[in-house]
Structure formats: structure tokens, C-alpha cells
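Sequence in, structure out. Go.
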Amino acid sequence: MSTHANISRGFAVCLLFAAAASTLPAADQPQWGQLYTRNMVSDEKNLPDTFDPATGENIKWAVRTGTQTYGTPVVARGRVLVGTNNGRPRDPRHMTDRGVLLCLNEADGKLLWTLIVPKLKAGYADWRNTGIASTPTIVGDRVYLVDNRGTVLCLDLAGQANGNDGPFRNEGRQMAPAGAAPMEVRKADADIVWAYDMREPLGVRQHDAMHTSILVYGRYAYVCTANGVDATHFKLPAPQAPSLIVLDKATGRLVAIDNEPIGPQLIHCMWSSPAVANVAGRNLILFGAGDCVCYAFEALTAPPPTGRLRTVWKFHCDPAGRKERPLDFQDNRTEGPSTINGMAVFHKGKVYVTAGGDPWHGKPQAWIKCIDPRGKGDITKTNLIWSRPLNRFCLSTPAIHDGLVYVADWGRTIHCFDAETGRPHWKHTVRGEIWASTLVADGKVYVGTRRGSFCILAAGKEKKLLATVRLGRPISASPVAANGVLYVATPTHLYAVKKGARLAKP
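Output:
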């Protein structure tokens, strides 16, 4: 049997396992979106139609995080992980601005261990008080994420409680600011198994924050580099740096980089994260890039001799095409180039992706597109199934369920489209911009807004608003459901929302 056939068979087994698991009453949520496809849909049942932090209604527990929380929580093996900042210091050794990853006990929210990372002294490369924005990925007893300094980390899910695992022994140096002595490593600290700094060997120059969610598929970890412009926003410090890299998940060794001229086409930064699609027996890595192109790379089964990913096809999502000098259009709100912020989603043989102008420096046009992934080379004209305009900009990843596509946009609108034709069914206007992605679970659509409201609508072709919960702080993270609990992160709190629970107020 060929290698491709073996891989295809393995992928099919994974899909069958996932289908069987969907009949179970509850399951972990170890990565952002569904396993491999990134679809923002959960099979969880019996989730609440509303909740109230003021009275504790339907709240199992609530934990203070920092003062800014951009990372989406993940849940696995009795642990909840979420990235935040150090706006509420827990360790007297770390009292100033830091990146923070919290590991909490799933049952009661108790803090188990913390990853604390000093800031880069590089302005826009590690924007103040942003913290760790990367959403972790949990595979077995390992945690994969990118810290605020541009270092890819593999952590032990147990922390230091079971000793210092792996070859890495410099945790004390890693959490000490530049020029300071290494710190004592305590049981409440994270345990780093390996670390790979993307800045030095690859020349990557991140912008604002490291916001990638690592895709772990097979032996490899696929990582968006967050390469971007400098503090002026009119210069690319590292246009030749890769946009997508591949590391060996066991060792952190660099295996491959993309072979595309993405960097010179950036208008701002690399925002998206990779997904997987199985197309006609071939496993493809889908990647929505900062040049507004959705790429399909061949998934690796072994280290490539060239050290480069092989591009199978690419789809340019902006009808206006490329700009020869994209930074000349910086802050041009009528005809600038576009980008992709959300993740491409593979569902029932189709790829769904959002694209449009950069919200901070580009034109407001945005689209959701449905693509036939059976192609080679440039498939822009031949493989578009449908395209629909969104209200204004878009940062969100779509959710596809029961023949419908749900997606939110920066223009304060939640949309519902037909998955086959793109025909609009309904749209719902909210009071604030939406940076997060919609979650579809238990017949409901959940999403938070930057005005601090959390919206709950009924899933289906008819619009029905079930509740609007006032949380009072701008919400950036997407909601997550796991083991019968809905997790909602605001800048200052992580809420574990469970139907029938009531949190006693002090």
C-alpha cells in the first residue's frame, strides 16, 4: 500500500473515531476548533441558554485572569489552559508586564501552575499588556503554544509537579528578564520540554503579539510565525522570513518552511492558523495567509529533502488581486490589499474562509468564500463555489453545521448562510465589534463582542435571540464547550458556565 494510501486510511480512522465520539455526552476540547478541520462546532449537549455573573446563575466557577485576555481557553485531561497578561500578579517575583499562561483544575478552577514570560523590549513586537495571545494545543500530556517573545514551546501538562521532564533545563533563565539572574524553579512553575526561538534562526519579526494556534498533525507541529511590519507600519523588517514553519513535535527541531513569497505582500501581519483537509486521499495543510491567499500545502509524512513545504494549490481571496507594492496602500481605506485573519475550515469536501481589508489599516470590504479544494496551482477562478460580502472587515473563523454557515464580522453583524449555495438566511446586529469566532453547540450560537455583551442565538434558518449577557468588558476570545461546560473568557475573568449550577457570591 502506498504512503498516501496509508495516510488517507489513518485520516479516515480519525474521522470515524471523531464521529463515534460525537455520540458521547461530553468530551475534551484540546485545541481551537474541531480536531484538524478547525470547524467552530461542538457536540456538547445540555448547555445553558443564558447565565448571569451578578447572581451566579448557571456559573460553576469563575477565575480572575489578568486585565487583557486574548487567548481562547482549551480543555483536556482535567485541565483548563488560557493565555492572559500579568495585570493581576500572582507571584511576587513577577510584578511588572509579562506574558502569562494559566493552568487551572477543570473541576473547580484552582490554579495548578503558571507559565510566566518576560516581555520583549521591542515595542510593537510584544505590545504592552497583551500577554500570551496564542491559544494552546494539547496532545496527550504535552502542551504546544507560542509565547509572547516568539518562542515555540512544548510544555508538560503536569507542570513541575511531576519533576522537570525533557531535555530543557533552563526554565529559571527563561522566566527571568534580560540581565537578571535565573530564578528558582518552583512546583507552581511551568515545565518546558523544548523551546524553539523563531526570531534568531529564521529572522522572524513578529508584530503586536504571537497569536497563532499551533496545529499538531502526525509527527509535526505547524506554526504561523506572526511575521509583520515594524512600529511605523510602513516597513517590513523581514520580508523574506517564513510565514509557516514545521517543527518535529517531539524535539522542536525545524523540519520545513513554506516556499511562497508571502512576506513581501503583507499589509500588516500574519494572523491565521493552519488546518487540515483530506482531499481525494491527499492530506493538505490549509493556511490563510497575510497576503489574502488561502494556501494548500502537502502534509508532511517525513522531513522534505529541500526543507520546503510543497504547495498544491493557492486561492487568492480578493477579487482585486495582488498589489505590486502593498505598503504603498497603507491606511488606504478604499483600494488597499486584503488579508486573512480567521482559520480556513474544511467541511464535507469544501473549504470555507473569510478574507478582507485589514481592520486597522485597510479597506472595509470583507467576504466569506466557499472553495472546491480539488485543484492544482492557482485555482482562484476555477474553484470558487460561492462568495458573499460581509458587513465590514472580519477576524472570525466560520462555523458550519447542519447545512448552515455562521460567521461574525467586525461590522457588528452575525450572519447565517446556506452552506451549499451561500444564500443568506438571516443576520443579527449587535452593539459592538466582533473579534471572536462564533461557536455552534447544542442548537445554539455563542459569541462575545467588544462592547462586553455575550450573545446567544438559536441555531437554524430562522433567527431567534435567546439571551444577551452583559459582561462589561471587551471580549476577544472565542467561547469553548467541553465536558458539559461552556467557557467564556473576558479580559479579567474566565467563566465556567454550566446549566443548573449556581456560584455562591461572597
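Check: DSSP finds three helices and 35 strands in the chain. Confidence is low (pLDDT under 50) at residues 1-25.
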